[in-house]
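Hi V.,

You were right to ask for the full record rather than a summary. Here it is.
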Amino acid sequence: MSREKWSSSIGFILASTGSAVGIGNIWRFPYIVGSNGGGAFLFPYLIAVFMFGLPLMMLEFTMGRHFRTSVVPTFSAIRKRFRLAGFSLVFIMGMILSYYLVITGWVLAYSLFFILGKPISFSLFVDSYYPVIFFLISGGITFFVVRAGVKRGIEKLSKSLIPLLFGMLFLLLASSLSLPGAVQGIEFYLTPDFSKLSDPFVWTAALGQAFFSLSVGTSILLTYGSYMQDEKIVKSATIVTVSDLLVAMMAGLVIFPIVFSFGLDPAAGVQLTFVTLPPIFQEMNFGILLGAVFFLLLFFAALTSAVSMLEVPVATLIDTYGFNRKKATLIASIIIILIGLPSALSYTALKLELFGTPLLDLKDYAFGTIGITMAGLILSIIAGWFLDPKIIFEKIGGGKKMQRLFMLIIRFFIPIILLLNLLTTIIKFG
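Predicted structure:
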């Protein structure tokens, strides 16, 4: 069975951008910035994106394009004993998707509430069983997109939604910048307080956000890279990275003027999107329309990321066990829905909790924070130390000095930084 490929370089870049651009850019980035000193956070974040995120993205594209297969067969080809490590990345990705679809469902629900002109409070929403219903709907949409295939499903969706996403961002940006108090929000966002840079938690937060936002180290981009034709890896990775960064920066320019215009706390955290912003939209001119645009924007971003996450286990079932795409997508989707159901129920009238904490929150910490860091650590070590450097150099090109620097970053800097980030996170939240 011949392997599917992207129909064009633009299709590949848009699909990879769709994978990278998700809730992490539009929902998570602004509150991480607000919680870490505003403009001070941008300096370590840019370093993390271009010094660590971009090289790891290039590495994943290289591995996918060279081996023309997904993560488990790729790791097995490098060393047979790494097969289990490949499955561990698939497992982590599946666990993240299982609760990511819950949040995707929340976003979809709020989109419809605003479109219908009947937004409700988050407390009323989670006191019902709407979260489960919309979790299942989001999982179903993701299933049908991936089932349709690389060209007709993933690429087609990305070509439609990514340009639309940028257009919606510009519309929200124009509305946000016209608010009274917008200038103070922009000043907070873009003016750095360099004293914050002495706080190691600011740096670990920047690194964590960079990896979370770019989807690197998880084998998503390795899988997407396996469908490449003759695209230039360095150019493609740079375009995807800059696009992802642009969305995150624009999201900040949308959120912070609203925050300061209505006297909100810029470090409000995760509740900002679902608890604080909906009532604010209702107070604004054309607020119901803007609220609908905002949550649709979030949903489109979440959907393209969810699709890329599901493709990891689907591609693994196809490449490792020889399943056809329809069967692989059905099996992977059913397993992920069943695993995700307790997370969906943790924010309903049932309030499914463990040790007084919603299961979704526990899973987010275990896999979205610890697991994703460990995945990046595993991938960088296996690829950096056991993959023939000639394969990497052949695909990325460049002079000898640049190649040596690239290997230095992959072999030493990224694993050390990820390990330190892991330890700091455990200390902070443990």
